[in-house]
Design brief:
Four copies of one chain form a homotetramer. Chain A is of the alpha/beta class and 346 residues long. Chain A is built from eleven helices and 14 strands. In chain A, helix 1 crosses helix 11 and helix 6 runs parallel beside helix 11.
Chain lengths: 346, 346, 346, 346
């Protein structure tokens, strides 16, 4: 296939979404990795920090200023919240297309964003332009986007799980419940006490029940599809595994529906969403390292409550994999280019 | 303290509830362990199978027939379902009091039991007499009971979590949701593939969404308190830890209630139920090895959905610890005798 | 690339080496998977047992007799010990090349094999012909082999670690020590109590100190290279992780050597052996899911004891990956064909 | 028992040895906990940081200056290295006995200490007086000590394992090898990246092969017993569990010895050292939460290499438990007072 190779850069590559982007892009057939920046680690070979990349990625972390990011076709921001909004404008002006894996461009209402992320937004005009890029919802907009807001991990698992119900208008939209469980890598590669192995292993807890930043993101996405506001209770939990999100979703049916058929039809043709056979229980390990979301839908005891089980790898479909999927769409590559890895089981 | 020492026996001590009973009874001030039976392992010192007991428990597993269980004051059944119902009658006739840690006497409607446990009940008359012994609900009946149905692990965590709401009559009883997560020891010490370390570690999944044996047990317990049937969706999950249950409970409020105060008042005076301060997120490790249930109650965004977080150690408050607590009540000991261990953290 | 696609079959695909072969062969550019047999599971889609393969492997487990294995170019035995020796002769006669991932053809001295594996060998004549296929030692013999004895997991990590020292003749060959630690998947996908999650998680123990089947295999391999018998103490340990072997090797230097240089030269040109910079400590996760062996060599305090650290993924370089590597060599493919996955970190 | 209750204080209680001391002292029959200091967390109830202590420890962290430590009978330092040496002199002058769980008083040669711990020693005169308190070696000196240097975790497991061999003078003392594996809590409750759950789980690695602070401590202890310097290679490893150390020790026999008998005799009468039957493999979980060291001794294939397996809980016998054991000895209590917990298994 005599296809172009585009030039890609990564800003902020020392976290888990950064190393995961490196893993995926290093195997991508149409993409050439040009630079990965880190002010703090400039000069260190990335394979020294992430030895799985030895022999496969020869780049060093570089100073952003010396990285010629404006010569790239696409730049990924694998940075903390609040960085991409500072740098996006200049890159977009230089013709670079942006994929932000953080939250800077996810919330359309800037005041809501500022309230949850506790900072002044530096670039509201790009928020208006940015595409919230869940390909299974708005693939067409992604194609031409200059700025991609890559969805969060919980929001990906929860929205893909609820989507068929909300689109069908068959559930009580004022009382959706998302009970979500995440592996510890979801908290990032940050030196914080509560995610130490000795704290988080062999332990289980909820957190953020009073409020979590992914709540407005999920609510916005579901409201967009519903065409009206939705009521959502979102309870995230920390579970002692490295990767994986399992969302258990509850909704009240307002009319009878063939749920299995509804889900299968909605996701027919979607490469990365796998509706499992009736009665299934998807496991997070079945998507470990892969870009898939696997979903099962149940109606326990034939009652009026739907239970949806939705699993993703938070670092792949919940972050770097979906970013590459969006890049593929933006540049007209096969949507699964570089994303054909099979999940590692066991 | 010139108190009596009662004689205790354990039937079927090779599983996790068995070794946990041994750990607790070996440290109990008023209890003398006389026999622990296992047909399969008769003759083996228990400390050979469970080396944590070396130097503390000198017993060998013995043949049931040779164990003089009828000379005991109390006999614990730490057996698979369907064993206690075969042997209880003779022991009760001999004046022995029975604590069954399995499910044989938990469901009052024998036909429901037979449907879920897929066998003919061998001793329905003792079902009628047996006390379903959640001390925080029916301590008085436990005192004089001859046959104790010790509650299941999920049912303990879920019922203690819902109880104040159901008693207060302030939630929609037709739509209770219990999203529960259990450590792998909850599946028992059985050689089964799906609970191998290489299958269950670094993985998360729901199971039994279409139906789980603890569903009728929980529903019966809540209905008993409510004075009417309840509607319950119960979704258990397997989480990669050894011990611990975390139940996340959802209910719709039907009238405004001061939830924190409701819970604190309900459990004031209960040694083993700890209502945590408002805004808390109890961790399973905070009860690892201890007989406590820790509970927090939330009302996210001030909406009409209550979220209750309830944690126990499935092998202690969810099994052996509660069995000892019940024994203490039956024999008039301090309710926390032998149960003062502090949870192991980290 | 207009290269041939060979036809491959797998005998016994329900274990971990089986699913790992499926993962690798499903992504192999020159290999077509024709059959995977399992008497017990015949008729079940493999993706039902291993949901990571959904959408990627459409085969069902089939009866061996109905699997036309004799039409394959290569057949992998991912079976328990003692199966391949029963079936290899017929396949070899039919012109099929065999890769046995079990131990049937590993030990050249049949009487030693029979003593350790406690059965009569059914096919001694193929033992004589079989090639013990550690490519880094005897790649040339692999090329033309009809029967491949694929090395064990511990033996791969230990031999690759000791090899440069033994070849150089610079250590006391009578007192080699291999302290090896394996993830639990090394014990296979067998329903056994001691490898349950609740037994093996958060626990560490040695096993088989008095004797382990991999001892004669390692000793044979090192003796072959040394040209004389070696003395080896081998202590395997079970460590609470899913995949990975870490071998810590100790040997007494008999003369001064530039160890770093010795190792780098020995493995220069080897795609799958990575000698890390001086002072390194390889991590098992740096090879999780990948076919690499990473090695570091130390001389603590400049004393006369060499310490070698050698890590592999027991299911890849220690089993299925090495089997594919051997297949690639046998059929003249690039040695890393289908083996370019980057390790999953974190 | 009309025994005195002594007054105890803890300096620096926010780490793992601190919370473990609290767990043990809260259950101690002869000890009253008076103060636990933390400059950073002064005012916070300890049970807020460590919820396992809710209902059992009512203390708040307090400012050291306001804690009346000089009114205590004993003060434990559960502080980073370098703190106890600043404060010990004043307390000792006030008649308080000191147990330092850090390393300030462990190394008798102050210049060696300063080299390994990279600071100037503030109190060399108390180093000279301090007792390195491994009770199984020098119980008598502990009785009258004013300053206790509580041994490190690795040094406890390794010394107890080697002791009988060294005392018997039956091994090559120039070539001892200690291959030790520790759970992650051994690194402390510090916000560091490499001990995050997502880094340390499902992973295994050696560290500090070129030099570890416990090397001089172990070498000093063994040399003391041997009456001559010893040669030791010490390789620590990080293993993905919370608690536990497994030391695998190798030594070359210089003469034939009945090893099992040697070990059993050496530790006869020791409450906290359990020599297991010949052929055993002790598991770390068999001492989880308990103050025991369990040891097995092997002579593989009847060769000249002894293999000793020694396990402890690094936070109990390797830290807080041994500190309490030393306190018991100092104050004439039963040596196991407050230390009768049975290990938590599973």
């Amino acid at each position: 296939m005599a296809q172009q190779r585009i030039k890609a850069g990564i800003v902020g590559g020392t976290g888990y979404t950064g190393v995961e982007l490196l893993r995926l892009l290093a195997q991508h057939p149409h993409c050439e990795l040009r630079a990965i920046t880190s002010r703090k680690e400039a000069g260190m070979p990335v394979a020294e920090m992430f030895p799985n990349l030895r022999g496969r990625v020869d780049l060093q972390f570089s100073e952003p200023s010396a990285s010629a990011l404006d010569k790239c076709d696409v730049v990924f921001f694998a940075t903390p919240n609040g960085v991409a909004m500072q740098e996006a404008r200049a890159l977009v002006s230089a013709g670079v297309r942006i994929v932000d894996l953080a939250a800077d461009f996810r919330i359309r209402d800037v005041s809501v964003w500022e309230q949850w992320y506790r900072m002044k937004h530096a670039c509201p005009e790009l928020v208006a332009e940015a595409v919230y890029a869940l390909p299974e919802v708005n693939r067409d907009q992604v194609k031409s986007a200059r700025v991609i807001a890559n969805p969060g991990c919980y929001p990906t698992a929860v929205q893909l799980g609820f989507l068929p119900l909300v689109e069908a208008g068959c559930v009580d939209l004022d009382h959706l419940i998302a009970d979500a469980k995440s592996g510890v890598s979801g908290a990032g590669r940050k030196a914080e006490t509560h995610i130490l192995h000795a704290e988080a292993a062999d332990n289980f807890k909820a957190y953020g029940v009073t409020g979590h930043r992914h709540h407005p993101e999920i609510a916005q996405g579901l409201a967009h599809v519903a065409g009206r506001p939705v009521g959502l209770v979102f309870v995230p939990h920390l579970t002692p595994m490295i990767r994986g999100i399992h969302a258990t979703l509850y909704a009240r049916l307002t009319r009878p529906v063939d749920l299995q058929s509804l889900y299968e039809k909605r996701y027919a043709g979607e490469t990365f969403v796998d509706v499992m056979p009736a009665g299934s229980h998807p496991e997070t390990r079945s998507v470990r390292g892969a870009n898939h979301c696997r979903i099962a839908v149940h109606q326990p005891q034939g009652g009026d409550t739907v239970v949806v089980l939705s699993v993703i790898d938070n670092l792949v479909k919940g972050a770097a994999g979906q970013a590459v999927q969006n890049m593929n769409i933006m540049f007209g590559f096969a949507e699964d280019a570089g994303l054909t890895q099979i999940a590692l089981l066991p």
